[in-house]
Specification:
InterPro entries: Kinase-like_dom_sf, LRK10/LRL21-25-like, Prot_kinase_dom, Ser-Thr/Tyr_kinase_cat_dom, WAK_GUB. It is found in: Membrane. The chain has 552 residues and is an alpha+beta fold. The protein contains 9 helices and 23 strands. Strand 18 and strand 19 form a beta hairpin.
Length: 552
């Protein structure tokens, strides 16, 4: 009974303390935008935490969603009318100073009127849209459904019916002059709308470019934020939209000794509740954590015993890894850290996130990578698997990374680097063909160069298996981006060349880069084919343009 009473008392006091600050900033996940006034998190925060129409929500996977009336301008018969459609979007960033949010993945929950003379002004939107990049609006056309589908138009499912379909096309095209659209007639023009806003029916099937949404309602005043406070609406958000401050002190509208006394009482109750909760619950979690660590360590030792007869790299404790890297003080980029072994040998240490990785897959991957012997794969010389701590120890490259030397390499050296990276990827993905291995980010800062300027790619155990075909196509695309990025960052790309041979090298690399970054994965070559193109004497043919109008 005493324990039950204690738990009930703690819950009551904690609920009372937290209810005093129920409008504090929050988010849907560790990478999601901060949610605070004038927005509020629906179903988690009361109405007075934000303006009406500024309610955000969270998905199961931590994405911030927003239901709003999307503002669209429709033009017909020299008349511009603003309408707003109920729309769901994903929110990626909120700039409270500029009063704008970056969103994407728009999906309309309502539709345009069927006829231009029926356009009416709907409820006004609290937001204005700003597309990121060029946009000239769209035109709606009514077309026969017997025509073939062509790339470039977007079907509006909610307006289409049996025997006809309504499509949306960029306004700067006169599509009625094209044979596939000769039977179409224009309905009306509209302003910018996000990609595929009307062509999908579920949130899971949506993708598209990002855009900005601006709001005009005043955000939290400077007076509140300068004093380290937050904002909310007075009187519980019941129509009175006057803003008040709260936080470390009582709201500006509440003054007097009684208010200060309440603030002190709430602080004492909160602190006492947290201390009491910690004393009561902490021993349980500490014991459970110790028990889980012991079980994890037993599992690791058992798995290593099964691999004992195999040629495994040297194992280091996590304490040794800390000593080698001097507590990870010398980070080169991302998860790579320079270090020095006891004998003076310089190494590169890569830390591994073990939160979603099976320890058995990690140990098996270490064994496979340790056996790899290839000029263009960074040699693994050691590893660490100490409870939930994982790390890999690789040989050190004197010339550091490709990113440091892009502007100093000549064209022949650049071709040699590009060919070496392609051979390394081809070796891992095709010759080894191990589905439990992963490649680090294929970018200049993760391509290491040895004394002879031979490139080395970094291979590490993957978190589980992957789709073999998809991963290979993604590697090809990443390789193409690498080649084009290196070419684009060279200052002497078009000037100062001594002979035609260097021009041919740059041209070949450019064509290979374009092939690897084709829009459709099926059009991308395999890494084996990329190696053949780079080693061949003939110039590769130019890849097709997937968005050319001749495809209609």
């Amino acid at each position: 009974m005493k324990i039950l009473f204690l738990i009930t008392l703690i819950s009551t006091l904690l609920h009372f303390a937290l209810s005093q600050n129920d409008c504090l900033p929050t988010s849907c996940g560790p990478t999601g935008p901060t949610i605070r006034f004038p927005f509020r998190l629906k179903d988690r925060q009361p109405a007075h935490c934000g303006y009406p129409g500024f309610e955000l929500s969270c998905t199961n996977n931590g994405i911030t969603k927003f239901d709003l009336r999307f503002p669209i301008t429709a033009s017909t018969n020299n008349t511009n009318i603003t309408i707003s459609l109920q729309t769901a979007v994903s929110v990626w960033d909120i700039d409270y100073m500029a009063q704008k949010m970056q969103a994407s993945n728009a999906r309309s929950k309502s539709c345009f009127p069927e006829k231009n003379n029926l356009i009416t002004t709907l409820n006004s939107s609290k937001f204005e849209v700003e597309p990121l990049g060029y946009s000239d609006g769209y035109t709606l056309f009514n077309c026969s459904s017997t025509r073939d589908n062509y790339y470039g138009d977007q079907k509006i499912n909610c307006l289409s019916g049996r025997g006809y379909e309504v499509i949306m096309f960029a306004s700067f095209y006169d599509i009625t002059s094209l044979p596939p659209y000769s039977s179409c007639f224009k309905m009306y023009d509209i302003s910018y709308v996000p990609d595929r806003m009307f062509s999908v029916e579920t949130d899971d099937d949506v993708y598209g470019t990002r855009f900005d949404l601006r709001w005009r309602e005043p955000s939290c005043g400077d007076t509140c934020e300068e004093n380290g406070k937050y904002c909310r609406l007075r009187n519980g958000g019941d129509g009175d939209e006057e803003i008040e401050c709260f936080g470390h002190e009582e709201p500006q509208h509440n003054t007097g000794a009684s208010r200060s006394h309440k603030t002190l009482t709430a602080g004492i109750i909160t602190a006492g509740t947290l201390i009491l909760s910690f004393i009561t619950i902490a021993p349980y979690f500490i014991l459970r954590s110790l028990k889980r660590n012991q079980e994890d360590q037993k599992t690791i030792e058992k798995l290593l015993a099964n691999h004992k007869g195999n040629a495994m790299p040297r194992r280091y404790s996590y304490a040794s890894i800390n000593k080698i890297t001097r507590n990870f003080k010398n980070a080169t980029c991302g998860t790579l850290h320079e270090g020095t072994l006891v004998d003076g040998t310089r190494v590169v240490v890569k830390t591994i996130d073990s939160s979603d990785q099976n320890v058995e897959d990690f140990i098996t991957g270490v064994e496979i990578i340790g056996r790899m012997q290839h000029l263009n794969v960074l040699q693994l010389i050691g590893y660490c698997v100490d409870r939930r701590k994982r790390a890999l120890v690789y040989e050190f490259m004197q010339n550091r990374t490709l990113g440091n030397l892009i502007t100093t390499l000549d064209d022949k050296s650049l071709h040699r680097v590009a060919l070496g990276v392609a051979k390394g990827i081809n070796y891992v993905r095709h010759e080894c063909d191990e589905k439990i291995l992963n490649l680090d980010d294929i970018s200049p800062k993760y391509i290491l160069l040895d004394d002879n300027f031979d490139p080395k790619i970094i291979v590490f155990p993957a978190a589980g298996t992957y789709d073999d075909v998809s991963s290979k196509k993604i590697d090809v695309f990443s390789y193409g981006k690498l080649v084009l990025e290196v070419l684009g960052r060279r200052r002497n790309l078009f000037h100062g060349r001594d002979n035609e041979e260097e021009d041919e090298i740059v041209k070949k690399l450019s064509i290979v880069g374009l092939w690897c970054t084709q829009w459709f994965p099926s059009d991308r070559p395999s890494m084996e084919c990329v190696v053949q193109m780079l080693e061949g004497d003939r110039m590769p043919i130019m890849p097709p343009n997937p968005f050319h109008l001749n495809t209609f």
